[in-house]
Design brief:
The complex is a heterodimer. By secondary structure, chain A is of the alpha/beta class. Chain A contains 18 helices and 32 strands. In chain A, helix 1 packs across helix 5, helix 2 packs across helix 3 and helix 6 crosses helix 7. The radius of gyration of chain A is 30 Å and the shape is globular. In chain B, the strands form two sheets. In chain B, strands 2-1-3-4-8 form a five-stranded mixed beta sheet. In chain B, helix 9 crosses helix 11. Classes of the chains: A alpha/beta, B alpha/beta. The interface between A and B is medium-sized, with 29 and 23 residues.
Chain lengths: 653, 317
């Protein structure tokens, strides 16, 4: 065996704290290693050329590169060795950057550790077996999960690109958060006026199949061939008959149902259409409030419906869709007021959230666009906005910035002045974050043209005093305490991950961070890909994002799907589980533990029961290999012996 | 506790099955040995007494045809576990259960009589055994020479059976006593525990008797202690390798060990090998609220893949 080892300086990234020449010198002493060198940038074109030439000149049959994380360049180098005529799996990467040079400052210790890392990689590469991928057909249909603006954009772009699209939305209408907004910054154009046409396009596009009020039940399969079970939740209204006339809503005697669309600003009816531009514009019964369900009698809507669409017996329905790729655009959630005892924890009707204020400002909202405060329906003259209500607050578990609050506060303050010219708005802020195009000009306009008073400081307490709410806070620029008697207080509550985000990630087998936001494949270079091939991200499910960024990601995800589907066949990853039927004892523990149902029982001609891996379904997670008591099932490229060789390389020396 | 009732039951079951697995007298008066009764005339040699310590259920997974089997309460847990793991077809097993008040440990008796040759042994029906050797007679209370598992037995009556030879009895041992020894051992320091296991396991001769007698070991001859592919441990007789083998066996039994004590019974070096498995069982009980071999409908925790477990908070959201 002739192993060649290439140690990368990565500029000063590695060479700064690792003696790369010494690592190369020590590596040359290892059995099997016939060539070891160090180079400035191994991933550069001349760096790769050097590997190719060494393979030819030194007749190398295995290659180790000691450089950065394999997540970055493993594929680069696999291609390099393949071009030089080796099997792409006769290559190993030792991560001496993220694991060593970046984390330790002691050059001697780092160098020793780097030598050990290389030893492990050499031991592994000498045990590597050639692997070959097979190819499989791609189902060129895409599923978009979430019908907010990011999901709609992804769906439209894919559909315009000629793909069949399945769009799944969990609420009764598409539109997401953007459909709830009144105006958008920094142009103050009407949100629904720009979103509405897109929603109609989605509804009318012959390539888009929309499942509204539906949720993902189960996802099986792999890139190119997913089977997704969708739960169509019972609406108790036959949508094939419902015309969206709204007669039921008018006559419904239950007037205290919680209005999810309006974030509870005002109650709604037990049967309702969320908003006038809803797509699909169909009614839905909320059984937690409907008298027919709570008391067992009523039936008013069934009597009034001109098309006889009401069906109290309706049950959830499960449908299965076969698709090849998934765009996840599940959006975000918001902190509730109950997180803020110092601001009344939701007990004061005139302390509301930003999104609630958005509904109050909105012409199709409960106040028909007149600013009326919830307690007594009077016009507020003094409005206080509190930014970072939860955001950038470690004690509440949200250390990050919610991205767009600074901007919408400025917008809402401007709109307040527009609606109530004799009003005065105050904004308590930590920093004004307005880095987008035209954003800083916008926040300045709020201050300079609309007289919004910005107070740099945090609010310590909000309490009622007569009909007013007293907002007590600090003005850190003046170094004093301030108290403002407000008629209405708007809290810019923190953006958090969508409810159930973690659960959805588990179904999709994608990673999520400690806050429930989905993790992209690379923060800079692969922003809409996930580490699960065939699953892409768009919008705020990946982190708080404003509309332009979400739309941009929707389009980016669509382009990724289109390029994935530009091929008819995809190559499978051969690093999957394989059963040694001679060693398999047929206990079939693996069948029961496989998270992907990729293993089944097979009876050999001898009558012996063994496990069999379904190659295309196996995701190579390795649960079966740790379950198998006799080691008969092995993950290719990560077999017990290959890993033991690595362990022995550093433990037995 | 009468041999007659067992014989009657066997006679009743025999026409339906290929063979009935039960016990007969062994080479001396304190040993019993498994026997396979396939015709009515063989029934005579069947015995049932506290000597019948072997867990006969171990034979079941290898049986191809329908068989009968005689089990004690503890042995029945093996059958229940087999059912949970799908290792036997319940339709092909006819179970004759025996309510049992405890068996004896031959090792403990031999120790008491100083390893003298046994000429004769008899039970007096009130819980003691009298052993006659060339050096005289010795009467021992069964409670003193029973295996440790009998001291905390929770299931004296089999948990599954088709015929019961005798009347059901319930345990008079407190439930908390089962893992008392483990709790006491856990209270020791790490160094003490390490020293304990080094001393005990150093005696191991890697005869694999514990593994071969284990009813739940599914691999047997394909054991990774002896394979090259994968090559987890070498054949070197070092403490390290011995330790590794016992760890592998214990981990392969995580949430599967039915605490029948066969490993302890067969160990020629008298190593308390069941203790490791019992420790893991105690953890399984704590983590998954799972007890092996009790309810045929239970799912062994290690046979499932759940993203979240009630007591393991990997996913905090």
């Amino acid at each position: 065996m002739r192993v060649g080892v290439f140690i990368c300086h990565c500029g000063n990234n590695i060479a700064g704290t690792v003696d790369v020449a010494k690592v190369a010198a020590e590596t040359r002493k290892l059995p099997g290693v016939v060539y070891a060198t160090n180079y400035m940038y191994t991933c550069s074109e001349p760096g790769q050329e050097e590997i190719k030439q060494a393979i030819q000149k030194e007749n190398l049959d295995r290659v180790v590169v000691a450089a950065c994380s394999p997540r970055m360049h493993e594929n680069t180098f696999r291609k390099t060795v393949e071009k030089a005529g080796l099997n792409r799996y006769f290559f190993e990467m030792a991560n001496i950057r993220e694991h060593i040079s970046w984390i330790g400052e002691d050059k001697e210790l780092n160098t020793n550790k780097a030598i050990e890392a290389v030893k492990m990689a050499v031991a592994k590469v000498m045990n590597d077996k050639p692997l070959y991928s097979s190819s499989f057909k791609v189902n060129k249909r895409v599923m978009v999960i979430g019908g907010g603006v990011a999901g709609m954009q992804a769906a439209l772009d894919c559909a315009d690109g000629g793909l069949d699209v399945v769009l799944v939305e969990k609420s009764p209408s598409i539109g997401g958060m953007m459909a709830r907004l009144d105006k958008t910054f920094p142009t103050i154009d009407c949100s629904i006026c720009i979103l509405g046409p897109k929603m109609v396009d989605v509804a009318q596009h012959e390539k888009i199949k929309l499942y509204a009020y539906s949720e993902i039940e189960e996802i099986k399969g792999y890139v190119g061939n997913y089977q997704v079970k969708i739960r169509k939740k019972a609406t108790y209204v036959d949508w094939t008959k419902c015309t969206g006339c709204g007669a039921c809503m008018e006559k419904c005697p239950t007037r205290n149902a919680y209005d999810h669309f309006n974030f509870g600003v005002a109650p709604t009816r037990a049967i309702n259409i969320p908003f006038p531009q809803a797509i699909p514009k169909k009614a839905k019964i909320d059984p937690t409030f409907c008298r027919q369900f709570t008391k067992g009698k009523c039936g008013v809507c069934a009597k009034i419906c001109p098309t006889g669409a009401i069906n109290y017996e309706m049950e959830d329905e499960i449908v299965t869709e076969d698709i090849g790729a998934i765009v996840v655009a599940t959006g975000y959630g918001l902190f509730d007021l109950d997180k803020f005892p110092e601001y009344g924890a939701g007990r004061y009707p005139d302390v509301i959230t930003g999104i609630q204020y958005e509904r109050i400002l909105n012409a199709s909202g409960p106040t028909s666009g007149h600013i009326l405060r919830p307690s007594d329906q009077t016009e507020p003259k003094t409005v206080v906005f509190v930014s970072c209500a939860g955001s950038r607050d470690k004690s509440l578990g949200v250390p990050y910035c919610s991205n767009f609050c600074c901007m919408y506060i400025a917008k809402q303050a401007i709109l307040t002045k527009d609606h109530v010219p004799d009003s005065q708005s105050y904004v308590f802020y930590m920093d004004i974050r307005s880095p987008g195009k035209g954003y800083d000009e916008f926040t300045r306009r709020a201050q300079e043209d609309y007289g919004v008073k910005y107070i740099r400081g945090r609010v310590s307490r909000i309490y009622p005093k007569g009909k007013k709410m007293v907002v007590r806070g600090a003005d850190t620029l003046l170094g004093t305490q301030v108290e403002i008697e407000a008629d209405l207080v708007v809290l810019a509550t923190a953006v958090i991950s969508a409810p159930g985000a973690a659960n959805m990630a588990e179904k999709l087998h994608i990673s999520y961070d400690t806050f429930g936001f989905y993790v992209e494949s690379h923060p800079k270079l692969r922003p809409v890909e996930t580490n699960t091939s065939g699953v892409f991200l768009a919008g705020a499910c990946q982190g708080p994002k404003d509309i332009p960024a979400s739309v941009g990601q929707g389009s980016a995800a669509a382009s990724k799907v289109l390029s994935l589907f530009s091929k008819d066949m995809l190559e499978s990853d051969p690093a999957i589980a394989q059963v040694n039927i001679n060693a398999c004892v047929g206990c079939l523990k693996c069948v029961k533990t496989c998270p992907f149902q990729a293993i089944k029982e097979e009876v050999l001609r001898s009558g012996k029961k063994v496990a069999k891996v379904i190659e295309t379904v196996c995701a190579g997670c390795g649960v079966c290999t740790s379950t198998c008591p006799c080691g008969a099932i092995q993950l290719q490229h990560f077999t017990d012996n290959q890993l033991l060789a690595e362990v022995n390389a550093i433990c037995q020396s | 506790m009468s041999t007659e009732k067992v014989k009657e039951a066997i006679a009743k079951v025999l026409p339906d099955v290929e063979t009935v697995i039960c016990w007969q007298g062994g080479f001396d008066a304190i040993h019993a040995t498994p026997c396979f009764v396939s015709s009515p005339e063989q029934i005579d040699k069947v015995i049932w007494s506290p000597l019948c310590a072997q867990n006969l259920a171990s034979y079941l997974p290898s049986m191809k045809k329908k068989v009968g089997i005689v089990v004690k309460g503890c042995d029945s847990r093996t059958i229940v576990q087999y059912m949970q793991e799908g290792l036997i077809d319940r339709e092909k097993v006819v179970i004759i259960g025996i309510p049992c008040t405890g068996v004896v440990s031959v090792k403990k008796i031999l120790k008491e009589i100083g390893h003298e040759a046994v000429l004769d042994a008899s039970f007096d029906g009130s819980g003691s055994i009298t052993v006659r050797t060339p050096k005289g007679e010795k009467t021992l209370a069964i409670a003193d020479v029973c295996p440790d598992k009998c001291r905390t037995c929770q299931y004296p009556t089999p948990l599954v059976y088709d015929h019961l030879a005798g009347d059901p009895i319930t345990s008079d041992k407190p439930k908390e006593s089962v893992y008392q020894d483990i709790r006491e051992f856990d209270a020791k320091t790490l160094e003490e525990r390490k020293a304990y296991w080094e001393k005990e396991l150093d005696r191991c001769i890697r005869c694999y008797a514990c593994r071969n007698a284990c009813p739940m070991c599914v691999c047997q001859d394909s054991c990774i202690a002896e394979t090259r592919e994968p090559h987890w441990i070498s054949q070197k007789l070092s403490l390290q390798e011995k330790f590794m083998f016992h760890m592998i066996h214990a981990l392969h039994l995580a949430g599967r060990c039915v605490e029948c004590g066969e490993c302890d019974r067969v160990c020629p070096m008298d190593i308390p090998v069941s203790k490791m498995k019992k420790k893991i069982n105690a953890e399984m009980k704590e983590l998954f609220n799972y007890e092996t071999g009790v309810n045929p409908d239970d799912k062994p925790p290690m046979f499932t893949f759940n993203v979240d477990e009630v007591k393991i908070k990997e996913h905090k959201l």
